[in-house]
Design brief:
40% strand; alpha+beta; 5-stranded antiparallel β-sheet; 3 helices; 18% helix
Amino acid sequence: MTQTNWYAVYVKSRHEFVVADELRKKGIDLFLPSATKLNQWKDRKKQVVVPLFPGYLFVSIAPEPEEFVNVIKTRGTVTFISLVPGHPTPVASEEIESLKMLLVSGERVDIYPHLQEGTPVRVTKGVFRGAQGMLKQKNHGQHIFLVNVELLGRSVAVKMCAEDVEAA
């Protein structure tokens, strides 16, 4: 049997699960790391499954041109990730196995790693839309948003849905 390698595939925005289904239908071994997060709409909150790496998934295929073409011809795929243009770069199998272990462990996964405590943030949704402040604390699915009035030496904090804030 031919040796396979893991490769990262870039897919169209919000097409990770569609591409994964199409690749499974073709019999291609894949890994789409995902986690559950709380989404909030105007009328309800719901737990949804989201990719850990939006826009990417991993496939395990033989390093053969026809295998690469078979993946690329799948609806929703864009390209393989390459350090050298035209030559897909393999992902270390240890990295994939580590990701799988992390997800199977049941430990909470931070799907907003770019927002660190102390980061200046802006509210993007809800009644506080447009407000700017500081990310005080991160909890699973929620952030504590802090508005500081320096002149008065006072701060006000409010818990917000994590997806409602972005780096300022």
